[in-house]
Each structure stands twice: as structure tokens, then as C-alpha cells.
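Minutes, project huddle
Topic: does the predicted pose make sense with flavin-adenine dinucleotide bound?
PN asked that the exact inputs be recorded in the minutes so nobody has to dig through chat later. Recorded below.
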Amino acid sequence: MGLEATRDLAIIGGGPGGLYAAFYAGLRGMSVSLFEALPFLGGQVAALYPEKAIFDIGGFPRVGGAELVARLEEQALQAGPELHVGEEVTGLGRDAAGVCLTTARGEYRARAVLLTTGVGRFTPRPLGVPAVDDWSGSGVGTTVRQAERFRGLPCLVVGGGDSALDWAAELADAGAQVTVAHRRDQFRALEASLSRAEAAGVTLRRSCTLETIHGEGRPESVVLRDLKTGVCEELACAAVVLALGYTADLSALRRWGLPLDGRGLLVTPDTMAVAPGVYAAGDVASYPGKLKLIATAFAEAALAVSACKQALDPDARLQAGHSSEHGSGGPAVATLGGGRREDGGDGA
Ligand SMILES: Cc1cc2nc3c(=O)[nH]c(=O)nc-3n(C[C@H](O)[C@H](O)[C@H](O)COP(=O)(O)OP(=O)(O)OC[C@H]3O[C@@H](n4cnc5c(N)ncnc54)[C@H](O)[C@@H]3O)c2cc1C
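Predicted holo structure (C-alpha cells), as shared on screen:
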């Protein structure tokens, strides 16, 4: 590989796990580069549910997805990571000096790598109807930004799972007139999601498929086909949400020679280590009893970074001091993590 390691830690994946890890590595005095394949940070939260409320983040009784991502970004940036957004890591090599990451823009060296790649490179599942999947204007997508823009307007959500019903309720709560079209007789969504959508006034259309979208640059109407009778019906429509789920691709990890167990990368849970110099945290990390939650990703990121810090610098303490004892902002991030064993005590 030949190049000098320019960073202590390279983080692959800019979702909640990767962003928190970038912050935490800064807290431990490590230099970081962070790679994200999508053109924005925030992982699943930003890509799949930016407008939804999240209720199980400690200290936030309720926080919107986009707000959580904005706060994570602000926290991560305190650590001054070298950001590579819109840059997918396609190759990962290892040698005694560390790791070498390959992207379409070049090669980057680091002393260690942390994989926070979540469910992998994810792509929305298409409907399989070219007139819909190839729609090139705006107003058709897998998420909704600023649901209140659709107040008073007719909107269509396609899908039968929780995500479809949640988007429908979200839009209806914002004042839109929402129809959900699902090709099966039964919705897969939880009873609670169905009840919430119905209470919000959403119209549920079963055994029904979206045939085509009409409009100039934006949807103006859609054609739905009843799969039992074959009858088509045209409805006014200002926005279409395709909530059909997504496919995730973890195959790159196999190509990189890392141990997978079908759910993700096998880690040693106390250090989150996958192999020497390779760590994993968040949804991609697998071990018995794993919970795929944002809270888990945060804790695992702290474990992985701390183990990595000690592996790179055996004189460093495993546990960082408490951030609360060092004020806030950049200087605290730069100084806190440097704590070394010889300073004794267990405080910061
Ligand atoms: C609809 C929905 C609702 C949810 N609600 C909640 C909730 O209420 N509470 C909760 O705790 N959890 C919730 N979750 C789960 C939560 O979003 C995940 O646990 C969390 O996003 C995992 O974070 P992560 O950083 O591990 O991975 P991700 O968020 O998946 O981020 C991984 C990132 O890595 C990037 N990446 C992958 N491969 C590469 C590569 N080779 N190069 C560069 N970048 C790469 C991806 O593009 C992605 O942005 C929900 C999930 C969904 C789908």
C-alpha cells in the first residue's frame, strides 16, 4: 500500500453510529476521516425517515429525524473530521501499518478503521412500473420533506408496511388528503400504524396498484388500478411517496474478507473488534442479543473508539474522562481524550 497513514481512524458510514464515533474519537484526541456514500450525512434517519418523530433517544422525549441528524452533525464536527460525503468506499486493504481505503477519488490510509456501514449500501425498492420508477420530475420519492407543504393537497402513498402507513399519517397530520394504495388485501403494518392512519383520515385502498403518474415536472394526477376488477381510476395527486422498503447490500464486506454471520459483521462485544485494526459499531455489528437501535449504535461507537484508542496507544486509558468535567466545544474535544494511564486516578 505504501502511503503514510494520515489519520488515526477512518470511519466508513456517516449514519448515527459513524457521526457519534467521529465525535467520540475527537474526544479521545484521535484524528479522523469519515466516508459516506450518500450525498448527505445521517444514514437511515436522513434517508428514510427525516420527518418522523423518534421517541427513544435518551434525553429527547421526542425528536424529529432531521433534527437529530443536525445535532449529531454539529457534535461530530467539533472533532474536525476530514469529511468525504458522497464518496463510497469500494476497497479495504490491511497491512501491519494500518488500513487503506479505496474510493472512486483515490486511496486513503489510516491506522485503523471503524465500520459503521449500517445495513450496507441501501437502495429503495422499485415499484416495477417503468412509468413510475422512471419518473424524472419532482414530487415523487421515498420520503417527504416538509410535509406541511402538502396541506390541503391530495397525496398518494404506495406500500403496505409500517413505513407506508406512518408516512400517510404524517402527511394527513400535516393537513394533506392522503390515499394509501397497497397491492395486497392485507396490510403488513402493525395494527397501531393502521389505527393511527385511519384516525388521521387516511383512505386505505387494498388490492390496488399505481399504474401511472400524469403531470408536467410534478404529479397532477395518478391512475390506480383495482387488481380484482381491473378497473382504472384517475385521482388528483400532488405528491407520491413510494414506501416499498429498500434493499441493503452488505456484499462489499464479504469481498473485504471480513467475517459475516448473515446479520452483519461478527464482533467481540466488549471491544467491537472484527479483526486487528478493524472495528464495527451500529446496525452492521452482530453479536448475540444485539439490538438495532440508535442508542445501541452510540454505545457501541464509544466502545469501539475506546478499544481502538488503547490498541493504537497502549499507554492511553480505556475509559475517557467525563465530558462534563471538561466544558464543551472544540478545545474540550481535543484535550479530553488525551488522558493517559500515567496520570493515575480514574477521573479525567
Ligand atoms: C423507518 C425506520 C424507523 C426507525 N426508527 C427508529 C427509532 O425510532 N429508534 C431507533 O433507535 N432506531 C430506529 N430505526 C433504526 C435506526 O435508524 C438504525 O438503528 C440506525 O440508523 C443505525 O445507525 P448506523 O449508523 O449503524 O447505520 P445507518 O443509519 O444505516 O448508516 C450507515 C451509513 O453507511 C453508509 N455506507 C454503507 N456502506 C458504505 C460504504 N461502502 N462507503 C461509504 N458509506 C457507506 C450508508 O450510506 C449509510 O448512510 C429506524 C429504522 C427505520 C428504517
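Observations noted during the meeting:
- The radius of gyration is 23 Å.
- The chain has a mean pLDDT of 89.
No decisions taken; revisit at the next huddle.
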